[in-house]
Design a protein that fits this description.
The protein is of the alpha/beta class and 405 residues long. It has 2 domains: 129 residues, Enolase-like, domain 1, CATH 3.30.390.10; 232 residues, Enolase-like C-terminal domain (TIM Barrel, Alpha-Beta Barrel). Helices cover 37% and strands 18% of the residues. A 9-stranded mixed sheet has the order 3-2-7-8-9-10-11-12-13. A 3-stranded antiparallel sheet has the order 1-4-5. Strands 6-14 form a two-stranded antiparallel sheet. α11 links the parallel β12 and β13. α6 crosses α7 and α8 packs parallel to α9. The longest helix has 19 residues. The protein is globular. The chain starts with a strand and ends in a 27-residue tail after the last helix. The structure holds magnesium ion.
């Protein structure tokens, strides 16, 4: 089989409300680029990548000379064709490779009429559990609803998500307001859901000292882990030495060099595997194998996804024996998806592993066209700026917090 064409389409899909984070915000929608890989056997595979807009479409077009004519079954060779480590110094193609890998696995699964997890060693579970992903939110621009700023609003949002989707683990995305206020919010969540698990992720906005202070205050709570409170392997190591909660990251261990450094001189206890950041589902499985060997924890990270990427997270979660935490997904904040049948459904806080051939999800061509048109209308947004604070940008560690009153 040979790849005959690649086609990238950037889409934008509305969120319920703008989601704030330590570097800015998702301004009420996600921008994602959908990749279609066509073959000489008439089978098309789908991949997905975050953000980028027109530059992502151009970057995929630039891959054509490397990929056209390649056999989609030859994935390990393709990795070196696109991401040879020396060549990668000059062009950052790891995330593009991930989208191409998703599409090739989709093609292989469709050709062999098996779900992707069967190509990856077979599933060890039928569903992947997810955490509620609690963001501080700005009001929806059209309706004015959905704001999350006060503790009352946060608790009511968390209760609503738990009731709708059945989550029993809650992640608070912080780094927006002063750490003292976010600490109050986190403790309020713990008091509201005494049976549930918790995790806090301020996207590395805190100083080492504030991280230690925050961490020591929550040591007695039902924590999954303490996710990227501060920046850097050395900062995280200092936090880890002073706080009795497992540390986790999706920022400073996102490749094998960093994983090796972390094994030799531990900073991080739980590695959050992102199918895009690591360059594909297969790279995440290899990383999970290293983690299994050294008895580090793993979980599934979300960098914002539509249904194609979500399917990659589900197939990854399906095959990892050492997945002992609920995964993260932004998915429930979306108003719609580009899949036939609409959004995949949560049941008791989990999503079932797709059983159809390939990734097991089918792209709705009309929806793809509709949201590509919406992208052409609205364009991109500045992910690292907050619409509520137009003059602000983030320092590391941050010292200038949004106003919560
Ligand atoms: Mg994170």
């Amino acid at each position: 089989m040979k790849i005959t064409n690649l086609k990238a389409t950037t889409v934008t899909l509305p969120l319920e409300s703008p989601l704030r984070h330590s570097n800015g915000a998702h301004w009420g929608r996600f921008v994602r680029t959908i990749l279609e890989v066509e073959t000489d056997e008439g089978i098309t595979g789908y991949g997905e990548m975050g953000g980028g807009g027109e530059s992502a479409e151009l970057a995929f077009a630039g891959l054509k000379p490397y990929i056209i004519g390649h056999d989609p079954f030859q994935l390990e060779a393709l990795r070196f064709k696109i991401c040879n480590p020396t060549a990668s110094l000059y062009n950052n193609r790891t995330q593009l490779m991930a989208a191409v890998e998703f599409a090739c696995l989709d093609i292989i699964g469709k050709k062999l009429d098996v779900p992707v997890y069967q190509l990856l060693g077979g599933k060890v579970r039928d569903e992947v559990k997810f955490a509620s992903y609690l963001f501080y939110r700005l009001p929806n621009e059209q309706t004015g609803a959905g704001e999350v700023r006060t503790i009352e609003q946060l608790l009511s949002h968390a209760k609503d998500l738990k009731q709708k989707y059945g989550f029993t683990s809650h992640k608070l995305k912080g780094g927006v307001f002063h750490p003292d206020y976010e600490l109050e919010c986190y403790k309020a969540l713990a008091a509201e859901f005494p049976e549930d698990r918790l995790r806090y992720d301020p996207n590395a906005a805190l100083s080492v000292e504030d991280s230690i202070r925050f961490g020591q205050e929550i040591e007695g709570l039902n924590n999954d882990y303490f996710e990227d409170p501060t920046w850097g392997l050395n900062g995280m190591r200092r936090v880890r030495s002073m706080v009795r909660i497992p540390t986790a990251t999706n920022t400073v261990v996102v490749n094998f060099e960093q994983l090796a450094a972390n094994v030799l001189n531990p900073s991080i206890d739980v590695i959050l595997l992102d199918t895009t950041f690591w360059g594909g589902i297969r790279q995440c499985i290899k990383a999970a194998g290293v983690c299994e060997t050294f008895q580090l924890g793993v979980a599934v990270h979300s960098s914002g996804e539509l249904g194609i990427q979500l399917a990659t997270m589900l197939h990854l979660g399906a095959v990892l024996p050492n997945l002992a935490f609920a995964g993260d997904a932004h998915y429930h904040h979306l108003q719609d998806d580009i899949l036939v049948g609409g959004k995949l459904r949560y049941e008791n806080g989990a999503i079932k592993i797709p059983e159809g051939p390939g990734l097991g999800v089918t792209v709705d061509k009309e929806k793809l066209a509709e949201y590509a048109e919406l992208y052409r209308e609205l364009g991109g947004y500045t992910y690292d700026r907050d619409p509520a604070r137009p003059d602000w940008f983030a320092y590391v560690p941050n010292q200038i917090w949004a106003d919560h009153v």
